[in-house]
Amino acid sequence: MASDDLSLGRAFAVLLGVSSPVIIFAGYRAYRTGRLARGWRRLRVWALGGVTTLEEALGYSCAMCGGSFDAREEVRTLSCDHVFHRCKGDKCKHVIDDWLRENRVACPVCRKVALPVLPWKAPPTSAPSASDLEDPLVRQAPAPPASSSGSEEPQLPLSTMASGEEPPL
């Protein structure tokens, strides 16, 4: 019984010793040739979702090429509600999937980071308005009220505020 365990352990050690360098070499080669990065970029674009086949023509145009959307055409809707052609054709030579693979994952129109879209989200019925494109997280702070005495409160340096210490009174 003990010799069976010993031979099983040796067999496992030999298998591990032979397969580890092969796996490491294949991974290094994929990294050097760029296949690994291309695969991750393709997976990243696939994971965004938002691909639908139109049942009827949309009343506005592609945000990238300006071409119209026809029925039974495959489109990709990004999280910012911009809609793009997904397949190359006579109307559109530059499609959104190529843009997202070659560049960072951001909308080419508004430069917002493209987040994953739920699979059942349909393209919007109308083009996004300017107010829809505003980032709700980036708003200007309201101006501080003007003091009637004319004296301003001293501003604390950021290092004092960031350290968590109590400001001097």
Automatic annotation (TrEMBL):
Domain RING-type: 62-111
Cross-referenced Pfam families: zf-RING_2 (PF13639)
InterPro entries, per the entry: Znf_RING (IPR001841), Znf_RING/FYVE/PHD (IPR013083)
Alphabetical GO biological process terms: protein ubiquitination
One Gene Ontology molecular-function label: ubiquitin protein ligase activity
Keyword annotations of the record: Membrane, Metal-binding, Transmembrane, Transmembrane helix, Zinc, Zinc-finger
Transmembrane residue ranges: 12-31
Region annotation (Disordered) ranges: 123-169
Domain of life: Eukaryota
Protein name per the record: RING-type domain-containing protein
